[in-house]
Amino acid sequence: MQPVQQGANQRRFSCAQITLQPDHRSRLQARAQRFAEGARGSLVGKIEKDGTIGAMHNQNSSRKGAELARAIKARGHDLGFSAVGIARAQIGIAGERLRQWLAMGCHGSMDYMARHADLRCNPQALLPGTLTVVSAALDYKPAAADPESVLADGTLAYISRYALGRDYHKTVRQRLQKLAGAIEELAGPFGYRVFSDSAPVMEVEFARQAGLGWRGKHTLLLSRQGSWRFLGDIYTNLPLPPDEPTSQHCGQCEACLTACPTAAITAPYRVDARRCISYLTIEHDGPIPEPLRPFIGNRIYGCDDCQLCCPWNRFASLGDPDFAPRNGLDALPLAELFAWQEDVFSLRLAGSPIRRIGHRRWLRNIAVALGNGPATEESRRALALRTDYPDTMVREHVVWALARLEARAKRPT
């Protein structure tokens, strides 16, 4: 089974795996080392004989850096990014907050988050010579069935809006690569590496520093254009001038804390993954804890409640066409999806981020949703057909769901 990756959707968790990606890491590291000094010499300056540093302190070099930054942002917008900003490759206090979160065990079974914490906190470990981060956002809000209506219909499957269309990893990565190519046209050869939820990177923190928005109390990046955005980064060795961070605009609002079905947002700016539906239905590989199952409702892949309730999302724009719903996933019956055999699952979800969880977790999640839905004959028949499924975990969830429906059917109407 492939490791599950998610997060630059700005999803609740940046579930990044440290793997050698198709961005040719060794080539880029060599490139970074080769051009780091050249970039610093041409744009920043050099140490003079008397020991003083002539580093972008003269008006001419500052002007050139600002012009390059503006040109980079313009190219980013031309490529479809909704926002582009620049941050220093320093995470500051965010690193300590991450370590505190890990120490509390809030990452659940996502052990790689603890294993790779040092890499996440040190951009130079992923790309030697990194000086600045180009942070980019891509809107994904789809023109789909009304989410509130789907959530209210216990016979339908609710899938997180970010996963209804094309796998965001591919779209964001391709756009970032094109932006990196555009930067090379503007500045000449430089060292860089692009990330689309593909390595331990503090996407939200860099986006915050780059002025793309602020960190909402649900821990996602939030802006005046809402939170339905994927994030991606380009680590570079270019000494670009950083943007100013945006001020907070959540005020006293705690709608996201109240809306969370499982009370996973335990305090403003803190999420306990062990209770989060996105974690339970995507990242978690084992049985879903029974006390939390009823609160999952009909959510079979992820959860959007903390975004659906956010006042700022009233101003969100429709996203890139790549993320338009495929195969009617925005409002399909649970029983129909539960009947998919593994080959159908793989075929229908080719090119979708959902495919990463595998057929086993797919069936587990839908069994829980069927158990939370109305006690219809169709639901009971769908579950009964899986009682002899070879996987023990799936069978246990099916038995639980059938018992729930049986108990519900016996209740006086």
Protein architecture, described:
The model is unreliable at 1-9 and 14-57 (pLDDT under 50). This protein has two domains: 25-143 and 164-236, no CATH class; 255-410, no CATH class. Helix 2 runs antiparallel to helix 8. The chain is 41% helix and 10% strand. The protein has 18 helices and ten strands. The protein has 413 residues and is α+β, with helices and mostly antiparallel strands. The chain has a four-stranded antiparallel sheet with strand order 1-2-7-4, with helices on both faces. A two-stranded parallel sheet has the order 3-10. It has a two-stranded antiparallel sheet with strand order 5-6.
Strand and helix map with partners:
Elements: H1 25-44, H2 59-78, E1 83-88, H3 94-103, H4 111-115, H5 117-121, H6 123-126, E2 132-139, H7 147-152, E3 158-159, H8 168-187, E4 192-195, H9 203-209, E5 214-215, E6 221-222, E7 229-236, H10 255-259, E8 265-267, E9 270-271, H11 277-283, H12 293-296, E10 299-301, H13 305-308, H14 334-338, H15 342-348, H16 358-372, H17 377-384, H18 392-410
Parallel strand pairs: 3-10
Antiparallel strand pairs: 1-2, 2-7, 4-7, 5-6, 8-9
Helix pairs in contact: 2-8, 16-18, 17-18
